[in-house]
Amino acid sequence: MNIRAYPTDPILVIDDEEAILLSVDTILQLAGLNNVLTCSDSRQVMAIVKQRNPSLILLDLNMPQINGETILEQLTSQYPHIPIIIITGRIDAQTAVNCMKSGAFDYIVKPVDENRLIASVKKSLQYSELHLENQVLKEQLREGSLKHPEVFDDIITNSPKMMLLFSYIESVATTSQPVLIRGETGTGKELIARAIHTLSGNPGEFIAVNVAGLDDNVFSDTLFGHVKGAFTGAESGRSGLIERAADGTLFLDEIGDLSHSSQIKLLRLLQEKEYMPLGQDANRISRARIIASTHVDLWELQQKELFRKDLHYRLRTHRIVLPPLRERKEDIGLLVEYFVHNASKSLEKAKPRLPQELFPLLESYHYPGNIRELQAMVFDALVQNKNGILPLTVFRNHISRAGEAEGKLQQTDMKNGVVVGFATPFPTIKQATRMLIEEALHRAGNNQTTAATMLGITQQALSKRMLNWEDEH
Prior knowledge:
473 residues; alpha/beta; Rossmann fold; Helicase, Ruva Protein, domain 3; 4 domains; five-stranded parallel β-sheet; 19 helices; 49% helix; elongated
């Protein structure tokens, strides 16, 4: 199996001592940073940088031919976007200050502390990736077009909000940083995660797991695996999903439901890129990119101390918020046509005609279950289709049932102190009823049948109320 190079662009290590180059290279390789170039001749540095465009440079100051301070000045003037970490035996504060003023990202004194080096390198790479992401995003927003629209073919939309998200996704997909996708149930979070994986170019698999309801032991075994004899019944070792997703993507769905102890283990995985299978003492390096999703607001969970603040910040390096279907109603027509076509094909039935009243009715609904709910409604209607016309009654009944269920919830909320606000002066029952009817008619495009469905009354009852208005004048 081909192991993916990480980072994508190499880390360039410059030092005239071969022993130092070997030592730094070994430290980086053991930390999973396997794309490393070394250079012992300072005269070759600028040519190498021009040819390979490194993501990060580790630079010694004390070298023959051309010293490190001169190289630092040349690099920061010609390649200001490349972070440079100085590694040197000098320990005086003035040298450190001069290097930082000249544009160095960090300063490490020999002998090199492994933990200090790895922490600085990872922080520098994150900076480099974010810089690249911002450049790509600015370019795409300027051009107003997608470079790989085919990746989003499974996401049916004409929504400007979604198109803007697609541009952002293209810009962050190739980085190694975590992505947090937030959206209500049924908005297509896994489809977005798969699109990110495809755009990343990572050769490994896309592995998805719903972590809701997993206790800590099951979570650890599922993600990290175990060795033989790790617990009673472990008669053989088993690889975890982290290993299966090597050089690919691990998608953690419903991350907001993760237990506190599991959150700590996930945080270490994200920070150090290390994990430990159950029953094993040695750490392993993770090569999987993490994408997480949730339908809940992690900020609220964080305030209630149900979700770790440090894990939240680590997960949301890149954050995508999917709009609910009620905020992209221009897509309803497209989605209905798509679902009707697919359902007709799977059921081996002729494609029915769509009644004219269907779309005003659907656009008046707020879809608590989003796209998944619309898909279920269309499938149910097509199953019941008998005369070649998609039956409106299926949609009306579904919307009415949903309204009744929500009405009960609202009554419960009012008992708990949640009340509806009214303008001043307080309206009479007759005025409030008329306001409701007028708003329903407006949302339904003046279709009385659709408005009646929204109001939970029959079309005849609505007509009678409107006739009474005319009698009053």
